[in-house]
Amino acid sequence: CWAALQCCVDGGHAPLLDPLCCCLSWAKMGDIEEVFASFLAAEAVEGEEALLYLMRRCKGLAVSACAHAVFFCRLLQAFRVSSTGKALLTSLADSHSLKVGIIGGGHLGKQLARALVTVGRAPCSSVCISTRCSENLSDLQKLGLTCFYDNAQLAAWADVLFLCCLPSHTPSICSVVRPAIRKPCIVYSLITAVPLPR
């Protein structure tokens, strides 16, 4: 995998192997955790001390999922730009920016959008969220993100589509999204407990 990465980058230089390279600056885990400050309380409510471990684990899994998603988008954007003969960029903000769609505006969908904009430095115009309750995302709309409810429109627009919905909603969402996806589009599922073939 690393050898393939090294061959893909001009001159044999692999920015991911060089910690001093400014091409793809690494976000510190603390930077991503700041995005999750409002996600879950660090302390248990009286009578729920036994659940504190689960709450911390849930937050850790969400932070990890968003960190992977941000890294994936930045890596994909870097390869897109390098394949057009331009120098690698440190952010997604350029005329050929990656269009990221998020289906689901719950806790994970909101935090992913916030992480892409703050840590991933994606322009707000390149991140859209489709959710049933777009009025609940007023904080993201204030940041400049587009929030609406049309999964097919989002799938047709996006280069990368993140599924952040409930497992029970997966069949209905996939039946709407599948015919609308244009090629090439990467569908990145953050849905738990749903096997890939389903």
TrEMBL record:
Gene3D superfamilies: NAD(P)-binding Rossmann-like Domain. InterPro entries: NAD(P)-bd_dom_sf, P5C_Rdtase_cat_N. Residues 99-179 form the Pyrroline-5-carboxylate reductase catalytic N-terminal domain. GO terms for molecular function: pyrroline-5-carboxylate reductase activity. GO terms for biological process: L-proline biosynthetic process. Pfam families: F420_oxidored. Belongs to the pyrroline-5-carboxylate reductase family. PANTHER family: NADP-DEPENDENT OXIDOREDUCTASE DOMAIN-CONTAINING PROTEIN 1, PYRROLINE-5-CARBOXYLATE REDUCTASE. This is Pyrroline-5-carboxylate reductase catalytic N-terminal domain-containing protein. It comes from Bambusicola thoracicus.
